[in-house]
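Now for a sample.
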Amino acid sequence: MFKIGNVEVSELKEKYGTPLYIYDENIIKQNINDYKEGFVSKNYNTQIIYASKAFSSLYMYKLVREENIGVDVVSGGELYGVIKEKVDPKNIFFHGNNKGEAEMDMALSYKVKNIIIDNLDELKIWAKKCERIDYDLNLMLRINVGVSAHTHEYIVTAHPDSKFGYYIENDDILESIELIEASKNMKFKGFHFHVGSQIFDMTGFTIAIEKLFGLIKKINRKISYLNLGGGCGVKYTEDDKPLSLIDFSKIIIEKVDSELEKANIKIDKLFIEPGRSLVANAGYQLYTINQMKKALNKTYYFIDGGMNDNIRPALYGALYSVDIANKMDAKKDMEVSIAGKCCESGDVLFKDVKLPKADKDDLLIVYTTGAYGYSMASNYNRLPRPAVVFVDGNNSKLVIKRETYEDLYKNDLD
């Protein structure tokens, strides 16, 4: 039987049911420590910021707070969570390309200091709001450097026509810096970029750093902060060959140190924003196989979840590795597709995978599902979202309850 930490998944099913999201807490902590080990320079301070869109919960925010790293939020809902969990405002970084004014007001009421500005229109709204605050905002402009370092169109964030950031050749950059400099409570600190996710080859990343330093020379301003986003790839299948988190971090540090030396400038702090790479390989999904069916050319195993709790395969063809958790030593002599219970022909999560012959109530374990599983889950077909459990060695803890049918209709009006 497959174990997470020291706990058999059959025990987790018995205690919490399926479908189920499961996290190995010790793997998350190890990933954080690997970044802390690799992302260090003698020339400036560094800070790790968790990109919480990958997975957010009050317990995850508590873990981040206890590990003393920053947290990146992109919505009022995420912001509400970090405030509720009492994350230090100086460790909160507020992102987003279309921050609502109510979200801005929430950030200001909690005295969040670090804001990543996406565009000039947004900055003008902050400028008006800053007239009535009694503290300084540290602003970084998000720059679209025109470099993408991954493959799928839907997760490209740095081509010239991306919705994110100031394009690097846009005159709005200088106009924005001048507007910040003219403000009493807004301080221009530097730049942010993000060139994508699932990065295995660092060539695009290092080119992006070079282009950013070209902009720094051009604007001729003191730069205190540089934030280089995240993007380190993770292993979903045997074909994926990601860098270690330590090596990924060291390559970035070495490149920034080199560019700083060439430009003869100094910065105060360098930031990195891992999301997927902090939580993906710590996460698993556990399903029960309910039925099997032989079609004309395919064999299907039907599970008790589907695209509502893992939309990534249907959304952009994401691939995963899977096993039958209670038959780990059995011969994988069946080519099958794993289909969910949603009323969609596209609700086939795993196509043509090799698995043992299944029996009713066998358990399917899916690896590396810690990022963008629960975050992107829906109630399509009025299906309740699964529970989330954290495992720490011999112990398991429910951190998000399973939704009930009553939960699904609690906002409906008769």
In short: DSSP finds twelve helices and 20 strands in the chain. The two ends are 47 Å apart (CA to CA). Confidence is low (pLDDT under 50) at residues 151-157. The chain has two domains: 3-21+281-408, 39-274.
